Sequence to fold (116 residues):
Amino acid sequence: MAQHRRATSSGQDSAVHLHLKESGHSFEDSQVRILAREDRWFERGVKEAIHVKLEKPSLNRGGGLRHFLSPTYNAVLHSFQQQNKHSHHSRRPSDSSDKGETPQQKLGERPDQRPC
Fold:
């Protein structure tokens, strides 16, 4: 997360860095959670686009996305968001099921996959 706190070498600040600088806000590294993992480049871009669409508010400026979802997906994602609205907010990210599974394990993600 440190990379988001500072300007990038290209001279363009990350959305997180700009938000922290402009608002005076901060975030706790211990509270950051990985939403999904994927080691395949294209699929990781699709997952990132889905999470940016579903997670509101989002600091992602959109211009940094590699993959833009067709508006066709809006109804499906909205329906998914409504179905999971209560369960998403009723648990802390670190909570696990009775079996001791992490949220990533419940989704069938492997621990060796890269974060989105």
User: Anything to note?
Assistant: The helical segments are 2-5, 15-23, 41-54, 73-90, 103-106. The CA atoms of residues 11 and 17 lie 12 Å apart. The chain has a mean pLDDT of 70. DSSP finds five helices and no strands in the chain.
